[in-house]
Amino acid sequence: MKQRTIARAVESVGIGLHKGKPVRLRLEPLETGSGIIFYRKDTGVTIPLAPQYVVDTQMATVIGKEGSNVSTIEHFLSALYAYGIDNLRVVLDDGEMPIMDGSAASFCMMLDEAGIEEQSAGKEILRIKKEVTVRSGEKYVSLKPSETASFDFTIRFDHPVIARQHRRFTFSKQGFIREISRARTFGFLKEVQYLRSKNLALGGSLENAIVLDDTKVLNPEGLRFEDEFVRHKILDAMGDMKLIGRPILGAYEAFAGSHGLNHELTMALLADSEAYEVVTLQVQESAEFARSFA
Q1: 259 a catalytic residue
Q2: CB burial class (10 A; 0-12, 13-18, 19+) of residue 239?
Q3: pLDDT tens digits along 245-255
Q4: Are the C-beta atoms of residues 259 and 60 closer than 8 Å to each other?
């Protein structure tokens, strides 16, 4: 199995969630071994995708360098994870990824339009060798050894529409497109009102998020899935794990996980050389895992 980039450059324009301004996004292919890099066209700063460049996780995953940030990258990164993209240049003219419809579906369509190009070098993966867990009270996120890649997530909210939801997703590209990619981000009306009072979430609307009041979903079309909330949490987790830079062969598990805990998990994993190994994926050795990217 080989490294992947896109076959041709593609562009799109969307609204930034917090500033509410149009953002132009361009994806460009890169040679093998380049990794994923973000380029702020307006500031001239290049930011490699890696856990050490995470500068904020309060409301989204934000990377930054030399005073230039790129916010809300997790939805986009989940699509890159699913499509197995190893090398890519992401060009932006502002400090936010466009929110699109609040899911990863639009980014999947961009990748489909660009096409996938197999490259000459072998694909490296990160194999989990021992459990790594990060906790905050009853909340936790973990990675454990496994012969399959999976994401197991449980959430619990004191809200009649959400309550407790659990889903286990065994990774595959096609499964991601069907089951996870269309799950939208969500928020509560009182939180949106507070954020806007702070000049945040100015681009948020019922077009790009599920919004709930105290008792119900306010979006007139309702939910795309009965458990759309926990599906979106899996989407977020996949995006956050993409910061490791390689596909993970292991089992991710979370209870009430967050961007902050996910970042702590990636840092804790990479700090323990006995917890993982980087290997070049050989189809004959991991046929099932290789097929999951088809």
Answers
A1: yes
A2: buried
A3: 999 999 999 99
A4: yes
